[in-house]
Design a protein that fits this description.
The protein has 163 residues and is α+β, with helices and mostly antiparallel strands. It has six helices and five strands, in the order βββαββααααα.
Amino acid sequence: MKKIYGPYTAKDGRTRIVVYDTKTQEKKTVSYPKFLVEQKIGRKLTSQEVVHHKDGNPLNNIASNLQVAKRSKHSSSHMKYLYAHNLIHVQQSVEQRQNSSKRILGEKNINAKFTNKQVKEWRLRYFPNKSAKQLIYEIQIATNAKIRSIKNMLKGITYGAVA
C-alpha cells in the first residue's frame, strides 16, 4: 500500500509529493503534475515524455490543464513562445557583429582591457622564456582581467593585430 503526503511547494517553486510505500518502507519525492498525469493515463511516463501545463501556469495542476508532451516538441514550443513575445533577444546589432568578428580575427575590440603598449611589453617578456605563470599573475593583479583573456592575449589569439 502507498501513502501520499503533500502536495507541497519545494524550494525551486515546483509542486511535489512524497510517496511512501508501507510495504518496503521507501519514500520517494515526485513531481505532483507528473504523478497526476501518470494516474490519469495509467502508466509511467517515458524518459522522452514530460508534463505540459496547457495554460502555461505551472501552479495550475488541474487534470484538464495537464497533458503529456514529447520532450523535444515541448522545449521547442516554449522557445517559440519566448521568441514570439520578445522575451528572448537573439538579434545582434551591427556593432555587436563587428566586435564579434574582430575578436575572431584576433583584433582589439571596444571592450579591450589592455593597451597596445601593454600587449607588446608583456609579449616581449613572455616569448623569450615562456615562464608564464608569474607573468600571468602580475598581469591579472595589474588589470583585474580573467586568466583566459590573458593567456589568449599572450598567445596571439586576441590582440593579433598588435605586434
